[in-house]
Amino acid sequence: MRAITSEIASQPALWRKTAGIASAVAGLLPAPGEPAAAIGCGTSLHVARAYAALREERNLGTTDVATASELSPHRSYRRVVAISRSGTTTEVLRALERLRGSIATVAITAVPGSPVASTADDTIVLEFANEQSVVQTRFATTALALLRAHIGDGLEAAIVDGEAALAGALPVKPTEFKQFVFLGQGWTVGLADEAALKLREAASAWTEAYPAMEYRHGPISAAGRGTLVWAIGPVDPGVLADAADTGATIVNGGFDPMAELVLIQRMAVELAETQGLDPDHPKHLTRSVVLP
Question: pLDDT of 201-238, one tens digit each?
C-alpha cells in the first residue's frame, strides 16, 4: 500500500484525537476578539485561508491570511498562526524571524524541534499526523480540525462523514474528465484551492478552483463535456445549474467539507495510478521547500 493511501484512511481517527486535545492547547491560539493573521505555503496556506474565514464568520476577531512570503509589515496583530508540516519551510521561517519580539506567534507543525517550532513563541506539535508522502493529506485536515475545534465547531459530524467518504465508492470515475473545477463559498474557498492542488500535485491534472459566485465571471467559458465541477460545502445552486448547462458533470454530495476533501484525495490517488504516476513522490516536488 502506498503511504498516501494509509494516510488518507487515517484522517477521521486523527480528527477525533485532535478534538480531545483542543482544549489543552486553546490558550496558545488567538483568543476571541484578538486581531490575528494566519500564514502558510501551499497546502498550509489553504488551511490558513479556511481558518481565517471561519474565525471571521464566527465574529471572533479580524483575521487576515497571507502566504508566508507576503505577510504585510504594515499591519498589526496580537497573534500570528504559522502552519508548516515539516517545520522547515523557508518562507514561514523567515516570516517568524521578522515577527520575533514584536508580535506573538504560534506554529502548528508535525515535527518537534524543527526550525519553525524553535523560532515561534509557542508551538502545537501534531506529530501523530506527520506523513511520509510528499503530498499532504492528513496533516492539513488534522490542523484544520484543531482550528475548527478551537473556535467551537463540533467535529463529530465531520468524523462520521469522513468515515463514509472512505467506505463508499467515488461519485465519479476521474479518468472520464479532462478538467476538474472545485467551487467553495466562505471558508470552503480555501478547501476548493486545496482540492485543486491535490489533483495537480498527485496526478498532474488540469485543475481550477474559484469562489463559487466568481465562476460565472469568465472561467465557466472553458466548461463542457469532460469538465467535472465539484461543490465543496454549500454552493449557490444557480451556479451549479449554469455549470450543468455547459454539459459539465456536477458533484454536490453534501458531506462536511473536510470529508469532501477526503473523497477528492482518494480521487487524486486513483487518477495518478491510472496514469502510472507515483502520488507519494510527484515529479518536481519535495516534502518541504527549503531555499538556499
Answer: 999 999 999 999 999 999 999 999 999 999 999 999 99
Reduce the DSSP state of residue 57 to 3 states and report it. helix
Could you read off the pLDDT of 111-170 as tens digits, one per residue? Answer: 999 999 999 999 999 999 999 999 999 999 999 999 999 999 999 999 999 999 999 999
**Rounded distance, CA 69 to CA 83, Å?**
13
pLDDT of residue 285: 84
Residue type, 75: R
Residues 43 and 165 in one domain: no
CA torsion angle 274 168 51 131 (round to 10): -50
- How far out from the chain centre does Cα 144 lie? 7
- CA dist 62 and 183 (Å) reads 24
Which domain, by its residues, includes 30? 3-154
Same domain for 108 and 46: yes
Query: Is residue 172 situated within a structural domain?
Result: yes
Q: Render the burial of 211-250: b for 16+ CB within 10 Å, e for the rest.
A: bbeebeeeebeebeeebbbbbbbebeeebbebbeeeebbb
pLDDT of 292 higher than 90: no
Asked if residue 149 and residue 173 are part of one domain, the reply reads: no
Nearest to 232 by CA among 279, 265, 206, 204: 265
- In this structure, is residue 287 part of a structural domain? no
> What local confidence, expressed as pLDDT, does residue 247 receive?
98
Give dist(CA 81, CA 240) in Å, integer: 34
DSSP string of 191-260, one letter each residue: HHHHHHHHHHHHH---EEEEEGGGTTTTGGGG-STTEEEEE-S---HHHHHHHHHTT-EEE-----HHHH
